[in-house]
Structures are given as C-alpha cells and as structure tokens.
Amino acid sequence: MQHHQLIPPWLEKLLETAFFSVCRTHGAAARSECNMYCLDCNSDAFCFYCRSSRHNNHQVIQIRRSSYHDVVRVSEIENVLNIGGVQTYVINSARVLFLNERPQPKSGKTVSHICEICGRSLLDALRFCSLGCKVVGIKRNGNTSFMLEEISSSTTRMISSSSTRRRGEEELREGSQQDIYPPTPPSTSSNRRRKGIPHRAPFGS
C-alpha cells in the first residue's frame, strides 16, 4: 500500500503549521491566538472567531501547548486518526499527544522503551513519541497506518457528533482548569448503607 493511503492528506500539513500567532483579522480580541486547524480546509491555523465565521460545521481540532511544544487532545483526534503506537500523556487531567518530535538530551540512564525514530524515552511499550515520528515510521517501513477502519470510524463519529458540536461552542484554552473535567469517582454510598432496624409485626388479638 502506498504511503498516501496510510497517511491522511491533511496530517503532514498540520504537522508543518505554525500555531499561536495572533490572528491578523481579530488581533484586538481576547481570544485571537491561532490555535485551531480545519481538517476539511487543510489550510493555515486560525482563531476562535475565524472558526465561528468561516469553519462552521467543519471538522476542527484545537492545538494546545505543553512546555512550548504543540499537543492535541486524544479525545479530539482519535475520531479521525489511528493513533495506535503513539505515546500519550496526561496534562491538566486531559490525555494528549505531541504533534512533533521533541529533542531530548542524553541522560546516560538506561530506559526500557524508546521512540523508533528519534530515540526519545517513552513511558510505555510503544513505537513513537509523536504523530510526526509515526509519519516517518510509515514512510520508512510501511508497517503501520493512521487510517481508521471504515466501520469503526463511522460508528465513532456518530456517537461523538453531538458532544463534538457542544465542545465547539466552549472556550478551550491551554492550562485552563475550567474546561477540563476529571472523572467523577464512583459512589460508594451503597456499600456503606446501614441496614434498618427490623420491626416485628404486632401479634393479632
């Protein structure tokens, strides 16, 4: 199978895009940083206001930053991309993955898992540290893919379509706790419920 059949046409453009510049159209507004990308238009990054006016009903993902590196939430990208083999991280209670390779100074320590492409240490027994390294791995070996299976992809999109539309109306900013909701622990009240005191029925006269 050819590389273009294993990598979506928008992915490499996304990985090359510069984010977090100030929007030339809405620069005076509060939410004018260009941190969004439209998978349908496959063009430049844009801001919150551009999304509302030019990309309504399009597939849009938001890019965030962690330690000056671009990341995307797993919940936003997994519906359109097979992220298997890529290391994910939990930042501000949200699971994310990095767009591109991050340089790592050599520490001299022995590590159990490393990225096949750049050699960065990984937390889990996976192949790549980022989407960019997976792209290189596909072009080099062709033994993995970003493409979702057609059936599972369409099913996932139907399930997530309503929640995706709701998220699009909310303000999502890197480092903000307001838009990140940690999972609620299961209630244990039923396990601690005290039994009531039994009452005997009165004897009949």
UniProtKB/TrEMBL annotation:
Compositional bias per record (Basic and acidic residues), positions renumbered to this chain: 166-176
InterPro entries, alphabetized: PLATZ
Region entry Disordered, spans: 156-205
Pfam families (alphabetical): PLATZ
Official protein name in the record: PLATZ transcription factor family protein
Species the sequence originates in: Tagetes erecta
